[in-house]
Amino acid sequence: MEELLCTNDFITDAVNAYSDTIYKVAFNITKNKQDAFDVCQEVFLRLVKNGNNFNDCEHLKAWLLRVAVNCAKSNCTQAYRRSTVALNEVSGQCTENCSDRLELFDAVMRLSDKYRTVIHLYYYEDLSVAQIAEICSISETAVRSRLARGRSKLKKILSEEN
What we know:
globular
């Protein structure tokens, strides 16, 4: 298996290929545009500093997502970042104009962190249960359980709004 070497071109290609994905994961956790950009920057700085050789693009993507989740969670636990953001501010940052998608986005953002993260990775990033388990450092059973409970909570939130 050919390893991917961390060269300048490699870093540039990684940023171009994965920056949107990393930003979305970070935003999903931090609920803040500026913090998500900070997390994104930190993830790619760690890629430059780490200098790991990756087996393939899937290995790189999994590593980047894992670092993004960890950085975003760390960002949220910092004392000066613990303030909450009103949902109307967050929903204004949604890129979709469709009211149904905005309603779903608002509902997802109301979920607790553990459900929101697995729902985002599964539905928006199209990751498998096994990949999510590895990224979040939980068992596949826990991922399935969180997905089921998250879906149930989303259904309840959406039915209360209608």
